[in-house]
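sorry for the late reply, my laptop died twice this morning and i had to redo everyting from scratch. anyway the thing you sent over, i finally got around to it. pasting the sequence first so we're on the same page, its 392 residues, then the predicted structure underneath. double check i copied it right bc i was rushing
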Amino acid sequence: MRVVGLISGTSYDGIDAAAADLSLAGDEVTLRPRGAISVPYPEQLRADLVAAMPPAPTTAEAVCRLDTLIGQAFADVAVTAVAELGGGRADLVVSHGQTLYHWVDGRDVLGTLQVGQPAWIAERTGLPVLADIRARDVAVGGQGAPLVSLFDVLLLGASDRPTAALNLGGISNLTIMGPGRAPIAFDVGPANTLMDAAVSHGTGGAETFDRDGARAGRGEIAPDLLLRLLADPYYALAAPKSTGKEHFNLAYLLSALSDVESLALDDVVATVTALTAQTVVAACRDNGVESVIAAGGGTANPVLMAGLRAAMPEVEMTTIDERGVSSDAKEAYAFALIGFLALHGLPGTVASCTGASRSAVLGSLVPGAAGFPKIDRPSRPPRRLRIAAARR
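ok and here's the structure:
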């Protein structure tokens, strides 16, 4: 089955798409990557999205407009992905959409909202679309995140030592596996989100992220600010737990900065980069991690990666690219996998990772031009994920 996965993450800078051929035989699901693309949001659409994000107030009208316009933007990317990556065909599109709000109360997730109306994708492509992926896990008591943990567990779960799959997106998250214990997963805290907020605010929008870690490399870590940020109670919560820009945002950073002496922009960026490294390192040490496989946009930040390696010299650190999956596209491939499993009536979560009462089949299916696909349900879910050589 050929599946296209679509996602826009907590950095909301654009839409990532990946296409894969997936098959299931016995206990093993095979994913053969066909490639990935990333398309920036139109400038005005991104500005409207930023304006509606917490802690800013918004309206039902703004949410409706975003749901429509983001759905149309996802539809455009889906058409391109089917043509360029799928060789002109696909069987299913899986759309994560754009998270607008993740409703968290302490360690409990009460609801989650992703916008990007999937009907636009189904109409433009003629294909069935699986969307609203996170809500079912929340409905059975889970965090609804990090859903990439299923991909991690299937790919890496046979490790003979404590191993962590690390994702460095807007938020950092870990999936931790090892012999003799159930896998766990959780959002660690901010990764790129506070870096991006600092750069965008400090440059008046002329820059939106710390390209190649240049500002962090020039700056000096401010101890007072770092201690202020590390004191956040979120880090002391036990897993499973999840967070997002509802908590870690520009207003949060500006509030922390108001308690310390004035700092140069590069020093702020260096400090929040160190915050990401230190919180990830602490989480790895708390769980006895001996090996880390990293993915996400943060892997392109040499200052962040150097900070992680320097603080954990005893830990083997690689990237998911070495397993045959593009680091930038891992989440899009993970949602393609979740959609493939859902279409076969199979769970898309690991209950111990999200904290749910049970593993659930995820998503709501929008029919394509030919209606709903007819798939025979396998007798049991897979236990392993094999990455086959990419299509050329």
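Residues 151-323 form a domain with the Nucleotidyltransferase; domain 5 fold (CATH 3.30.420.40).
thats about all i looked at so far, will dig more tmrw
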